[in-house]
Amino acid sequence: MYIVGLTGGIGSGKTAASDIFKSLGVNIVDADIVAREVVEPGQAALAEITKYFGKDILLPDNSLDRAKLRLRIFQDPEAKAWLEQLLHPIIRKEIQEQLINSDSAYSILVSPLLFETDQSSIVNRILLIDVPVNTQLVRAAERDSNSLEQIQKIIDSQLPRDVKLSKADDIICNDQSLLDLEAKIKDKHAFYLEQAHEHNS
User: Fold this and answer.
1) What whole-number distance in Å separates Cα of residue 79 and Cα of residue 68?
2) Are 126 and 114 in contact (CB under 8 A)?
3) Which whole-number Å values give the CA distances from 66 to 63, 71, 148, 152, in the listed order?
4) How far is CA 75 from CA 79, 124, 150, in A?
5) Under 8 Å CB-to-CB from 34, ≥6 apart: which residues?
6) 64: which strand partners?
7) Whole-model pTM above 0.90?
8) What per-residue confidence (pLDDT) applies to 134?
9) Which of 35, 90, 158, 196 could potentially form a cystine with 2 if both were Cys, beta carbons 3.0 to 4.6 Å apart?
């Protein structure tokens, strides 16, 4: 099983990139989607979170109030550490199960926190979707209707760009058009197919 980790900062175009890989027949496992699934109502993790933070962390329909939780852990490093300790192993286990059940020549694990968590240890190569910080700010502010200040705070809380660049095996600069991104991804796809073939033979 050959796995490529796909990562990038906020507003870099990770989703656009993974959608292109998906259209090429590559199985995608998205860590953000898994992270949402493991805290849905009825899941053991949500019960633990409610016990720790109190019932006011829930919305009226008993689902997790993500905005409130994000704010709480942003202000309380101890709570953030507790939450990560609870969720990271659960998320990792679910990601691995989804990857094992993949039927494409290679799979892609999309994760914004690939470098910050131990998820990088389960991939064979890391592809970074990179954009200049000012592009990140503009794109993310347009997409999420957040202020530039809020987006800058998120960027500051993530691993610095130069560190990500130094840790990645492959880098795609996504500062042009979607067609340009597509062409670059098709090149990488051909390369990963070769790599997967060598790895699996």
Assistant:
1) 13
2) yes
3) 9, 9, 21, 20
4) 9, 35, 14
5) 91, 94, 95, 98
6) 58
7) no
8) 85
9) 196
